Amino acid sequence: MQIFLARTQGFCAGVARAIQTVEQALTAFGAPLYVFHEIVHNTSVVGHFKTKGVVFVNCINAVPPGGRLIFSAHGVSPAIVDQARVRGLLTIDATCPLVTKVHHEAAFFAAQDTPVILIGHNGHEEVEGTSGYVKPELLHIVSTVEDIDQLTIAAHKKVAVITQTTLSVDDTRTLILKLRGRFPRLTGPDREDICYATQNRQEAIKELARSLAPASPANSLIIICGSPNSSNSNRLQETGSHLGVTTIIVDHAGEIDMALLKNKTHIGISSGASVPRDLVDEIMARISNAYPDSTVTTFDNPEKNIVFPLPDM
Ligand code: SF4
């Protein structure tokens, strides 16, 4: 069996920053420490912090007045910031700077009374946060071509498009092309709201698929490590599947159905941007133990030196 480990492993800079923020706040202020939503979408990371006394909340009123609250990497709307201020909370903003950039874009277009089309998954925390920067009457959330067909904005109007940071690069390009055809005065970024980490990870899956190509589809498999609610991890699973490779997503090594590996000669392994590297190592170890003659091919990680400075606390 040949195992290929995708070149993008470990936390992206935004996730690393958010996790370090919680760690440093715990050291400086101790527990209880409150975090609005999951700090990042990873079961293992969230579970680890719960054991340290971190309380994850989905409502500002769940934090006692005067409590210390961290906003997660996915960001929050201005209304949530206001609610925290009114309640007298001490807040630390661990929003990824690349999400904050999208907030600024949303606020910029909304200030001009330009309708804003937000490509993203309704209900995702990041989309909720970004939506809060746009007046409801100007906001249109779309995630499919059909959603675009149902827009009622007049075609001659100036319209802005922004996106969630963790979307499929290929699907988003299709949607933006469709929007350009529909709204000649469309403005906004092309695909650069999709962050570098998401783009690199999807490219790395395409590279993995090329590495697996010598094997027949029946003999190859891609395993993505990522939690069920991780948007960027789910997009990796879709990317592999769209390329015709059977691609599964697991939260940890114990979730792998080892029967799936029978008769496989080529296995690709990757992970989402919020997955601790040791979870991937455990997957590699489980497979290597079951198939001691397997070989492992790795690639150079292009993200080693990308670091975001920590927020003020
Ligand atoms: S996936 Fe992208 S937007 Fe999300 S935290 Fe990482 S770098 Fe930031």
Overview of the molecule:
α3 (78-86) links the parallel β4 (68-71) and β5. 38% of the residues lie in helices and 17% in strands. The protein folds into 3 domains: 2-11 and 196-297, 4-hydroxy-3-methylbut-2-enyl diphosphate reductase, catalytic domain (Cobalt-precorrin-4 Transmethylase, domain 1); 13-96, Rossmann fold (3-Layer(aba) Sandwich), CATH 3.40.50; 98-187, Cobalt-precorrin-4 Transmethylase, domain 1 (3-Layer(aba) Sandwich), CATH 3.40.1010. With 313 residues, the chain is an alpha/beta fold. The mean pLDDT is 96. A 5-stranded parallel β-sheet has the order 11-10-12-1-13, sandwiched between helices. It has a 4-stranded parallel β-sheet with strand order 3-2-4-5, with helices on both faces. It has a 4-stranded parallel β-sheet with strand order 7-6-8-9, sandwiched between helices. Bound molecules: iron/sulfur cluster.
Distance between the termini: 49 Å
Bound molecules: iron/sulfur cluster
Average pLDDT taken over every residue: 96
Largest sheet: 5 strands, parallel
Q: Count every helix, treating DSSP H or I runs of 4 or more residues as helices.
A: 10
Shape: flat
Query: Uncertain runs with pLDDT below 50, 5 residues or more?
Result: none
Task: Tell me what the CATH architecture of the largest domain is.
Answer: 3-Layer(aba) Sandwich
Give the CATH level 1 class of the largest domain. Answer: Alpha Beta
CATH superfamily of the largest domain: 4-hydroxy-3-methylbut-2-enyl diphosphate reductase, catalytic domain
Could you give the count of β-strands?
13
- The total tally of domains equals 3
Strand order of the largest sheet: 11-10-12-1-13
Approximately how much helix is present in the residues? 25-40%
Share of residues in strands: 15-25%
Alpha-carbon Rg, integer: 21 Å
Here the CATH topology of the largest domain equals Cobalt-precorrin-4 Transmethylase, domain 1
- Give the H and E element order: EHEHEEHEHEHEHEHEHEHEEHE
